[in-house]
Amino acid sequence: HITYKQCLKEVADLNGISVTFMCKPFTDSTGSGCHIHLSLWDKKTDKNVFVGDLSKGRLKGCSQEFLWFLGGWIDKTPELFPFFAPTINSYKRFVSASWAPTKLAWSFDNRTAGFRIVGSGNSLRIEMRICGSDVNPYLAFAGSLAAGLDGIKNQINPPNPTDDDIYTTENLKTVPVSLEQAIA
After folding, report:
1. Residue 78: Cβ within 10 Å count
2. Span 106-112, mean pLDDT?
């Protein structure tokens, strides 16, 4: 990750241009995100632990562990926000109808949700769409995995899924809107 970024900076410099990894360098266009896809696999059975017989909203075929993992991840996201959005510029992405999630909600295959459930069977996974391109992927993955495993350990249920446009849905918890708010 660091080697890649440094290489791009040096190649750009050799060509008399510059490169940025800011997630939203221009206010008049959408930003760049870093979507994290996670599933949990049992090494002994080589099966996706998220697969089961439960249904929640439009999601069919998930396990209780899936729901708890998702619940923990959503629950801990406000605490992990400095990992997910580490710079002042990171928060410029979180604008309604900008393709960046502004609320802590989940849905099956809904691109306005911060947590989008995709796939079925062994491809079932959670896509977290909150991080920007300026994220440290190692911290984001570690925090996400820890939050999900905490959800399983403490049996944290997720909120109900939302199939509507999340930007216009009321009564949902919002993401922090500044680094100052995220670390408070």
Report:
1. 16
2. 92
